[in-house]
């Protein structure tokens, strides 16, 4: 942008200088020529009285003296002779012999002639020849000065434009830097509102937007904190009810579920509090987490007569994702299967290393499938083909993308839905 401003100012200034200096240069040339002709005319007129009354010897001496003193060639045509500087009898001279004083352009310069009447004798003619060099005397120097003036004005205009462009570009770059900082989560970044012109208005609006975002996030954190207190009270009651169940296995299963909900609520609160801070890089053993959560859901699968096939490696399989987030992914996918397929529907959970690192989690079911799986809208937040909230698949998608992976929906070999979750080793 700075270069464009300089080009624009330079081109505009050059056009103005050309429009101003070219006519001025031509005027200087005309003035110099007129001045040279006027000076030659004055010198020639000094001989008028002598030509009219002086005798031949005195006139010849005076003409030689004037010609020697003058920078121009001075001649007098009298009685068929040429006194002073040698000159030809040009048409202008013959015209002056008829009584007309005039001037005109001749080869090599300009000639000025005066007709001098002599009582009782033929008219004499005074001729002054001004060469082209005399007509252009000082013109080149004046043109050089005008050119130097034009170059100086152009340089000054470019310097001023450069300073203005620097201020303009600097303000624009500062705005972009603040925008990038806000995009990275640094909500304390603020733009300089003293930027010139409309940039100051944009900076003020950007600062207002940053303040509004910070206020919205603060309200969100407060809402989540309030929600945590509301949720933990019934969770405590559920935990106490679970402890009061006579069947130890049922009590342990319900207690484990309550504890999982409590961990999820705690993780949500911690994520809200960590906002605006530089995130870490959590590394989780996907094999251990998947095996643990599948074991939890296996009890419910047995109660609902579902055949659950599990293929999870025993060796550690690291992925860049928090354990709580990975647990939320597994719970969302398996919860969808249990919620949207009839009892007795078989399902399969597979975890294997992904090409290029990370892990690939595959959940297959033999249910009716998801019609929306045939288009990308099935992964949009709030979109559901079964009347639910539509947040389960979105949770899986968001977590997978945070790890550098993604989610695909396919048809399983059993005719139901297959969800493929790629968990990476870093951000894409």
Keywords:
5-stranded mixed sheet; 428 residues; Beta-Lactamase; alpha+beta; Heat Shock Protein 90; Helix Hairpins
Protein model, in words:
The chain has 428 residues and is α+β, with helices and mostly antiparallel strands. It has 3 domains: 139 residues, PAS domain (Beta-Lactamase, 2-Layer Sandwich); 96 residues, Helix Hairpins; 146 residues, 2-Layer Sandwich (Heat Shock Protein 90). The protein has 11 helices and 12 strands. The strands form 3 sheets. The protein has a 5-stranded antiparallel sheet, with helices on both faces. A 5-stranded mixed sheet has the order 7-9-10-12-11, with helices on one face. Strand 4 and strand 5 form a beta hairpin. Helix 7 packs antiparallel against helix 8, helix 9 runs parallel beside helix 10 and helix 10 runs antiparallel to helix 11. It is rod-shaped, with a radius of gyration of 51 Å. About 3% of the residues have low confidence.
